[in-house]
Write a structure and sequence with these properties.
The protein is mainly beta. The chain contains no helices and five strands.
């Protein structure tokens, strides 16, 4: 089911790199097309949970981004 998350967008520069959204509910690994200029900004992400995707960094929930905007 679609979800909306708000938090701080971070780019973790390890290996191939990974986008992570830091929220009050924890960290979410983000997948999809994300503009590098959004790094370190407060954003709202709409997307859907991805099953079975875990990253070495977060080990947390993964989300496939459908839309992202600055808040």
């Amino acid at each position: 089911s679609p979800m909306t998350l708000t938090g701080i967008l971070r780019f973790v520069d390890l290996g191939a790199g990974q986008w992570v959204l830091e929220t009050p509910k924890g960290k979410f690994a983000l997948f999809g097309d994300i503009d590098r200029s959004m790094a370190d900004r407060r954003v709202q992400v709409q997307g859907s949970p991805v099953d079975g995707q875990s990253t070495g960094m977060t080990g947390n929930q993964a989300v496939m981004v459908e839309s992202i905007r600055q808040t």
